Amino acid sequence: MNIYDVIVRPVVTEKTEILKADEGQYTFEVNRRANKIEIKHAVETIYDVSVVSVNVLNMPAKINRMRGRRRVTRIPTWKKAVVTLAPGQRIEALEA
Questions:
Q1: What CATH number was assigned to the domain covering residues 3-87?
Q2: 5 φ, ψ (degrees, to nearest 5)
């Protein structure tokens, strides 16, 4: 798998911003077929940083229902990776 196909997008929420500032952890949405080794290699190559560890979570599908209507939307399953960098390193492209 190409390294640019492994990482889909960074996940930016309040919780991920706190993790980024306090512990040097960055969160990405990754390809569902990617494993920890491929994710580590992709982050190290694209952002030129040293990755200490990678934690992977399979996020379940969600069903959203609109109140008062019969409209139902389904968010598909996706894979999330929390990447911990070496102390003192940052990804400048993802800093706000």
A1: 3.30.70.330
A2: -90, -15
Residue 16 DSSP code: H
Per-residue pLDDT of 40-90, as tens digits, reads 999 999 999 999 999 999 999 999 888 777 788 899 999 999 999 999 999
> Which is nearest to 7 in space by CA: 62, 76, 56, 52?
56
Among residues 24, 21, 20, the alpha carbon closest in space to that of 11 is found at 20
Report, in angstroms and rounded to the nearest whole number, the Rg of the chain calculated over CA atoms.
15
**Domain residue ranges in the chain:** 3-87
Separation between Cα atoms, residue 24 and residue 20, nearest integer Å:
5
Reduce the DSSP state of residue 80 to 3 states and report it: strand
Contact 79, 34 (CB under 8 A): yes
